[in-house]
Amino acid sequence: MRIAIFTSFLLAPLAALAAPAQEASGTLRTPPTRALDTRQVVTPAPCAPLNPPPTEEQMKARFDKFATAFLVTKNLTEAFSYISSSYKQHRAGVPDGPEFVLDILGPMWPNVTITDPRWTSNAEYGWLNYKTSAFGEIVDKYKFEAGCITEHWDEGEVYPTD
User: Fold this and answer.
1) Which residue segment(s) compose the domain that 140 sits in?
2) CATH of the domain at 77
3) What is the number of structural domains in the chain?
4) What is the mean pLDDT of each run of 10 residues along the chain (162 residues)?
5) Is residue 117 part of a domain?
């Protein structure tokens, strides 16, 4: 059975471990670590909205980093750093927020074979299209707000042709 909820994050690769996040007070805090199976997955601080929002070219560069982290290096800590804490899942039965998807993907993502990855984006949306050893072909659609991924769809999505 194709379970695309596992691909819902979404949502990127630079750091194997997240750097300490800065609180509003200026103090540093270490992101929590989730114990999943025998591995440790570092939960990054959620994406902070950018002000001013990025230009379309800057957003495309951000989405490229997310897609590379998620599909190529399979670094969930980096990928999830592009996802907002208010992340909305447009799939029945899947809770909103990035935590659920991170908990599901964390133990399995390193062992999933990903082939034929491609991605594209514009100023408001980004799409991933790839094949997996576990779930078949996937098309994920993401919405951006102020430089962060805020929404995700993965049922019946079509990769853009233009």
Assistant:
1) 1-12+54-157
2) 3.10.450.50
3) 1
4) 36 29 40 44 90 96 97 95 94 87 89 95 95 92 97 94 82
5) yes
